[in-house]
Amino acid sequence: MHPDHVGWNVSRIDGNESPTFPNARYVAHEADWAAYETPRDSEIFGYDWWLQTVTPLHRLGVLDLIDGETELTGELTVTPTPGHTPGSMSLIINSGGEKAFIMGDVFHGPAQITETDWVFHYDMDPEIAGASRRKMLDRAESETAAIAICHHSGFGRVIRESGNRYWQAL
User: What are phi and psi of 58, to 5 degrees?
Assistant: First the structure.
């Protein structure tokens, strides 16, 4: 629900709002809905992104608020990865016998694969964010999943060398 991930959700023509993708369902965690529906966030980000890009989806009936790990389809599951925000989520893709995790804002660069306690400025709860990073790395390793970091291009894998985890691009 961060403003750098929710743009272009809504189209406005002659004062009428409609979902940009009318056949899509938008999925968000209930905890983020509760956390962002405050005036404070407009002050932090400098514009009322919430009212412009998110609340119209709810009003238009295309936003599904969920809690916990939720299977969307047989191949797509969202899983909570709190810390960056209370309701931050990641997407698990399971297709053709292979897995990939789209990590959202769990990581903000490959260095955090090794340094899971490094804090990103906008992490709302740095301690929980670090725990989510470690949990997802454990899961990626145990499930041999490729991973993608939202603010870093490309897919990679977690590798171990001398007891440390590192990012290896695919």
Answer: -65, -45
Give the residues across from 26 on adjacent strands: 63
- Answer for the pair 97, 50: CB distance below 8 angstroms, yes or no: no
The sign of the dihedral angle between the CA atoms of 119, 121, 81, 113 is: negative
CA distance 39 to 51: 10
Q: Tell me the pTM.
A: 0.88
Which domains are seen in the chain, by residue range? 1-67 (no CATH), 68-170 (3.60.15.10)
pLDDT higher than 90, residue 47: no
Q: 128-142 burial, b if ≥16 CB within 10 A, otherwise e? A: bbbbbbebbbebbee
Rounded distance, CA 28 to CA 93, Å? Answer: 17
Query: 56 in helix, strand or coil?
Result: helix
